[in-house]
Write a structure and sequence with these properties.
By secondary structure, this protein is an all-alpha fold. The chain has one domain: Orthogonal Bundle (Lysozyme). It has nine helices and two strands; from the N terminus they run αααββαααααα. Strands 1-2 form a two-stranded antiparallel sheet. The radius of gyration is 24 Å and the shape is globular. The two termini are 16 Å apart.
């Protein structure tokens, strides 16, 4: 006579609880490097793989240094720093390393050479005008400038507008609202893509968990 495997109700409940999975969708979750590389490549189709990889790594690394006050939110939720920095860079240069504006703003974050030099001098770092196009120089300097604006304005909209037109212009009431709207629109696109992938992953885990529970139930009968 074959022995049947028996599971107590408590064990089944334990397993069921272990596989009761739910999506974790928070705006503070971090973008993954491969996902960010794919997103960058979709917006700048001419970017080479090496540059794409370096840019994604630098964005993820430097976004952690953003000093965004806790009260600042987008759509009423805490700000995903990596998504915000990515959105701003896309707005500024569409991820083009050698982008130069008609006002001579340069690089990924479209820094004015005078602003770049000022930031370098302020932090006591060596200034190399030719390095402004490098991700490892341009993005950290842009983040440092953003932090200075965060401290001064304490308002995300005004920070973005000041980054675009200069703090003096904002104080004089020169506000290019379309610039901030574009950043927020891109930010939402990035967030929606990230959350969508997390939902797909969670659904797959839920399906796997349900199948495992069904197996345990059959074994207990």
């Amino acid at each position: 006579m074959k022995k049947r495997l028996k599971f107590s109700g408590s064990i089944l409940i334990l397993f069921a609880g272990a596989f009761q999975l739910h999506p974790i969708l928070t705006t503070t979750s971090s973008l993954k490097e491969n996902e960010l590389k794919g997103y960058i490549a979709s917006k700048n189709t001419r970017i080479i793989k090496e540059e794409e990889s370096e840019l994604a790594k630098t964005i993820l690394q430097e976004s952690k240094k953003l000093e965004i006050p806790a009260h600042l939110k987008i759509d009423g939720k805490p700000i995903n720093k990596a998504a915000f920095l990515t959105a701003l860079i896309q707005t500024e240069s569409v991820f083009k390393r050698k982008a130069v504006s008609y006002k001579n703003a340069k690089g990924y974050m479209q820094l004015m050479p005078t602003t770049y030099k000022w930031i370098k001098n302020k932090s006591g770092k060596k200034h190399d005008e030719n390095a402004i196009f490098l991700a490892k120089e341009n993005i950290p300097s842009g983040v440092e400038y953003l932090n200075l604006l965060m401290n001064e304005f304490q308002d995300l909209r005004l920070v973005c507008l000041a980054y675009n037109a200069g703090p003096g212009a904002v104080k004089r009431g020169i506000l290019i609202e379309s610039y901030y709207r574009k950043i927020v629109t891109i930010y939402r696109e990035i967030q929606n893509q990230e959350n969508g992938k997390m939902e797909e992953k969670s659904l797959a885990l839920n399906t796997e968990g349900n199948a495992y529970q069904a197996t345990l139930f059959r074994l207990s009968r």
